[in-house]
Amino acid sequence: MRTATESRPTRPLGLSLREAEIMSLIAEGNSNGQIATRLVLAEKTVKNHVNRIYAKLGADSRAAAIAAWTDANGG
Predict the structure, then answer these.
(1) Which of 5, 19, 39, 53 is 20 to 30 A from 63 via CA?
(2) % of the chain surpassing 90 pLDDT
(3) Neighbours of 36 (CB within 10 A)
(4) Rounded to an integer, what distance in angstroms lies between the CA atom of residue 73 and that of residue 34?
């Protein structure tokens, strides 16, 4: 059970923690297949996360998503 004084993880740019994890891996240059292998997920699951990430960031490409992510993280 959480208490009022317990800190909660941040959700950068409105992304879920899993989406933020995947976005970090994208920014490192990993492909969807590489991310799927690393996180032990189906590649289709990673693609679904990527599509939600794009929607939340208002991005229409991997490059645009990386730019938004880098800007938000002081990059």
Answers:
(1) 39
(2) 75
(3) 19
(4) 23
